[in-house]
Amino acid sequence: MLSEHDRAIFNKYRKIVDDHILDFIPEIDPLSKDLYDSMKYALLSGGKRIRPVLVLAACEMFNTPLAFVIPYACAVEYVHTYSLIHDDLPCMDDDDMRRGKPTVHKQFGEANAVLAGDGLLSCAFETMNKDMLMYLDDPELLKRKVRAAYSLSKGCGCRGMVAGQVTDIATADEQSSTDLINYVNYKKTACLIRASVMMGGFLGGMNSDTWEDLSIYGENIGMAFQLADDLADSSSGQDADEATYVQLFGREKAVELAEQYIQTARNAIEKYYDHGSIYRYLADLLETRIHE
Ligand code: GRG
Hints:
The chain is mainly α and 292 residues long. It is built from 13 helices and 2 strands; from the N terminus they run H-H-H-H-E-E-H-H-H-H-H-H-H-H-H.
């Protein structure tokens, strides 16, 4: 049962992301208007904003001012949006529709879609670096921001999401094993979700005990998130030829495993529940989704 209180807090933060999502896109020369239009199209096409809200959880958990966190929350959504644009391309998943609308390459052409992804990825790091410039005289606060930015770099890059996508493609024709599926799910999906949680923690100045708890939460929520997505795809007949945990072991086992991840995530953060409605809500929401 989803708590109305937690849902209201989650929605409040989601609206904050919606209100600020274009704020950090730099002014783009009219000669490059296609770039702005395609990035804006993707950013405003109805994402759930789960990753940026997980960054903003720092405001609730550590009482961190919104202005301190919002550039980093938007940076994560820029990275996530880029990954979806590239994932939809004909050379990858070749999807025509996302969130009920034509994908970016269908709307703006393939070259513009590649460039919109490149633009968003660059914007993410430009946004964080520009913000850090304002803290050069405050090493303590700057440290928090550098750590948050590094967390995103690691989560989305060559040891995280991009690595997962490459492995997924490289092993598409192989007989899948549990280890391989877990590896791909961890890298492709959980790394960016964990990074979002950790970014919030770094920005909020977490201590080492909290680091451990948030890391466990982020990792397990991330793994459950991918299983929930696979379960939803299997219900709708999508990705029927993809090797997923659901394909390999069936829905019942996948639900059971997702429950285990969700429970581990909950155990890690329940002691923070007074200030952790966002974390709890996402765990509850995922639990609802896997039983749909
Ligand atoms: C192309 C470098 C590169 C990476 C792509 C994220 C990814 C890797 C591929 C997308 C395919 C996919 C379904 C990955 C699993 C992650 C996932 C469940 C994405 C969807 O996230 P949501 O549900 O999306 O948060 P919305 O639409 O709400 O933003």
